[in-house]
Amino acid sequence: MLDVARRAGVTKQTVSNVVRGRQVVSAETRAKVEAAIAELGYTPNMVARGLATGSTMTVGFLVPTIAHPFYSEVVEEVESLLEESGYHLLLATTRGDGERARRHLSSLSSRSVDALLVAGDFDLGEHADVLRAKGVPVALCAWEIDPPPSLPVVTIDYEEAGFLAGRHLRELGHERVAVFADLPAHRVRLDGMRRAFALDGLSVPEDRIFPVHGASLETAYEAVEHALPLFGAAGRLPTAVITSTDAIALGVMQALRDRGLRVPQDVSVVGIDDIPQAAHAHPTLTTVALPKRRMARQATALLLAAIAGEPLSGADSSLLSPEIVSRASTTPVRPAAARAR
Amino acid sequence: MLDVARRAGVTKQTVSNVVRGRQVVSAETRAKVEAAIAELGYTPNMVARGLATGSTMTVGFLVPTIAHPFYSEVVEEVESLLEESGYHLLLATTRGDGERARRHLSSLSSRSVDALLVAGDFDLGEHADVLRAKGVPVALCAWEIDPPPSLPVVTIDYEEAGFLAGRHLRELGHERVAVFADLPAHRVRLDGMRRAFALDGLSVPEDRIFPVHGASLETAYEAVEHALPLFGAAGRLPTAVITSTDAIALGVMQALRDRGLRVPQDVSVVGIDDIPQAAHAHPTLTTVALPKRRMARQATALLLAAIAGEPLSGADSSLLSPEIVSRASTTPVRPAAARAR
DNA sequence: CTGAAAGCGCTTACAG
DNA sequence: CTGAAAGCGCTTACAG
After folding, report:
1. CA distance between the termini of chain B
2. How far apart, in whole angstroms, are the C-alpha atoms of residue A131 and residue A302?
3. CA atoms within 13 A on the CB side of B45
4. What pTM was estimated for this model as a whole?
5. How large is the average pLDDT for residues B222-230?
6. Residue of chain A whose alpha carbon sits nearest to that of B48
7. Spatial separation of the C-alpha atoms in residues B141 and A51, rounded to whole Å
8. Which of A109, A111, A253, A262 to mutate to test the interface with B (most CBs of B within 10 A)?
9. Which residues of A touch B134 (CB under 8 A)?
10. How buried is residue A229: exposed, middle or buried, by Cβ count under 10 Å (0-12/13-18/19+)?
11. Half-sphere exposure of B291 (CA within 13 A, CB side)
C-alpha cells in the first residue's frame, strides 16, 4: 500500500480512500492511484483491514452435515445471501458429534467471525454465553428440539409438519396407517401426526410406529421388510404410510413396490421435507415442504442486521410454517374389498 | 491480552507464549497466566495473530455447487482433513457462473486464505497467475477438461471411467448399447466408452447417443421417454444403457421400469460416480466409482504441504484411477429371442 | 526464562 | 480534499 502511495505520489491514507471507494478524493489523484494499483498488482490485505476495523466480512455456519439434501440447500442459500452482501462463508460440520461441535464453536468465535449461525440440535452448553459475551451475534436455525431460550432461533414448525402430513391422510379418508420415523430425533413430528388423528378421535397404535435409524433410504427399506410380515393378511395392511422424512418415504415406496404393492393404489405414502428427489420420484411424492430456503434467508438476514448494529434477542425468533405438497403418492382410501381385488 | 498479563503479573509476551503452548515458560507462571485467562474469559484474537504471522489458518475452496452428492462428499472430506490439521474451510460456490467464480477467486485471495482449492471446470483466466503471484498455493481438483498446465491438479481419469463402464458391458457380451450422457460436459467419459467398444472393433452409432442436459434424474427420465420410441420394435432395443453419471442411470432405470422393462433382465444399466444412492437403488446400480474422497484427501494434503513450505508445481498433479463396482443392474447379454419372450 | 521495542498492513480521527 | 500520528492485538527478534 505504501508502495502504491509512493508510486502515485500520495500518502497511503489516500490510497485507502481510493480502495474503499470513498468520494473524498479528486478524480485526478484517483486515476493516478488506480494506475499505480494496476501497475503494482496491489490487492488490499483484508486481514489487516479486519484487525483495524474489527470486521472480517465472514460469517461462520455450523451444520451437522452437508451430505444431506436438506442441509445442502440451506448452506447453498446462506452462501448465496452472504455473497450478495459481500460476506464470506466459513463452514464447519459437526457430524452429530457434540464434542466436535463445541471445538468448532470455540475456534470459530476466536477466529473472529462477524456472526455465527448454528444449525441442528446439540447441547450448546456454556458456549452460547461465551459467544454472546464476545459480542459476536449468534443465531440458531433448523432447531427441532429445545432451543436455548436466550438465543434467537429461526426454525420450522416441525410439529405442524407432522400434523399436516397426518391431516392430509385424514382428508383422504385414511384411518389405518403405519408410521416410519427416525426416533427419537423426529418425535416432535410424530406428535403432530398423532394430533391430526386425535382430532378425529383416532389414535396411532404404538405397534404401528416403526423406528428408522438415521432416516436413510436404505434403513427405511429394511424397516419395511421387517414390518410387513407383522401385518398378516393383505386386508390388515395399512392403507397409508406416513414417514418423518422424504428419504424414508422413498425407501418405503421402493420396498412396497418390490413387494408387489402399488403406490398409491394399494398404499398411500406421504413424506416430510420436500427434497428435490421428491418431485422426481415415481410416483411423485406427496410431502410436507419444510421452508428451508426461507429459513436460511431469514436467519442470514437476522445476522446481517445484527452485524449492522441491530440488537439481537430471543424475541427475533420465528417459527416458519410448512406446507403440504400434494402429488401422486397419495390417493383417497378405498374399501378393503376393492383393495384386496 | 494486556489485561491478562497485568492480572497475572507478567508481560503480554509471556501470555503469548502460554497461549501458543511454547515450552519456554515456567510451570508456576504458566499456572498464573492460565488462571488469569480463565478469570477474564480471554480468547486470543486470531485476526491479529493472522496479521502478525501472515497465516490465517484458513483454506478457501471454490466448488460449482454443494447440492450434488459428488461435491458434497468432496467438501465433507476436505473439511474433515482441514479440521484435523487445525484449519478452517472458507467455502464459495460458482453455480456454473464463470463471472461469479472469478469474483470469488479475487475476493478469496485478498482475504488472505493460506491456500486455495478450486474444483470444476471454468476458465481460470488470468486469476491463476494472480494467485500464484500473491504466493498463496493453489491447487485444482475434479478438473475434467483442459486443466491449466501451470497449476497442480488432482483429478480423476474420467476417460478411464467411461472406458471401464464400456468394458464392463463388453465383458458381459453387450454389443448394442445406448448412451445417455450430459454433453458436452462429459464428452471425455464418452470418449472412454467409445474406446472400450472400439477395442473389439465395435462402434457406438451417433444416433444411440442421447444428450441429457444437467445430468439430473429428471432430465434423464425425460430423455428415455423421448428415446424409446426411436428404437421401434422390442428386438431393436439396446441390451444395455451406459450413462455418464449415476443420477442419469437412476433416472434411466425408473423410466425403463415405468415402461415395463426389467433391469437387468431386459436392459442392463451402468452408471459413473458411485453416489451413496447407487448402492441403495433397486436393483443396486453397477457403476464406476470415482475416487472423490481420495482426490479430496490428496488435494488437501498437497495444499497443506505447500503451506508448510514445500514448493508446488504442475509436477504435483495426479490422475486417480476409477474402479468398476459391479452390482445388480447389469447382467450378461441374452439372445434376442430370450429377451423377447 | 522474562521484559521493552518494533512491526504486520490497514483504518480512524485530527490538523492543515 | 490531503498529510502525519496513533492504534487494532498480536508475534518476532533481541537484550537482560
Report:
1. 82
2. 16
3. 17
4. 0.93
5. 92
6. A51
7. 32
8. A111
9. 43
10. exposed
11. 17
Which residue out of A37, A42, A46, A248 would a mutagenesis test of the B interface target, given it has the greatest number of B Cβ atoms within 10 Å?
Answer: A46
Given a contact cutoff of 8 angstroms between Cβ atoms, the answer to whether B187 and B161 are in contact is no
On whether the CB atoms of residues A292 and A254 are closer than 8 A, the answer is: no
Q: How far apart are CA A179 and CA A46, in angstroms?
A: 53
First to last CA, chain A: 83
Using DSSP's 3-state secondary structure scheme, residue B196 falls into helix
Confidence at residue A132, expressed as pLDDT on a 0 to 100 scale:
74
Q: Which nucleotides of D are covered by protein (CB under 7 A)?
A: 1-5, 7-13
How far apart are the C-alpha atoms of B67 and A73, rounded to whole Å?
6
How many Å apart are B176 CA and D4 C1'?
81
Q: Give the relative orientation of helices B27-40 and B12-19 as an angle to the nearest 10 degrees.
A: 90
CA distance B313 to chain A (A): 22
Question: Which residues in chain A (223-252) have CB-CB distances under 8 A to chain B?
Answer: 251
Q: Could you tell me the domains of chain B?
A: 2-44 (1.10.260.40), 57-157+291-322 (3.40.50.2300), 158-289+325-340 (3.40.50.2300)
Residue A297's beta-bridge partner residues? none
**Tell me: the pLDDT tens digits for B229-263?**
988 766 689 999 999 999 999 999 989 988 899 99
pLDDT at position A341 is 45
Rounded, the Å distance between the CA of B242 and C1' of D11 is 59
Burial class (CB in 10 A: 0-12, 13-18, 19+), A311: exposed
What are the angstrom distances between the C-alpha of A278 and each of A69, A160, A270, A271, A275?
A: 11, 20, 10, 9, 6
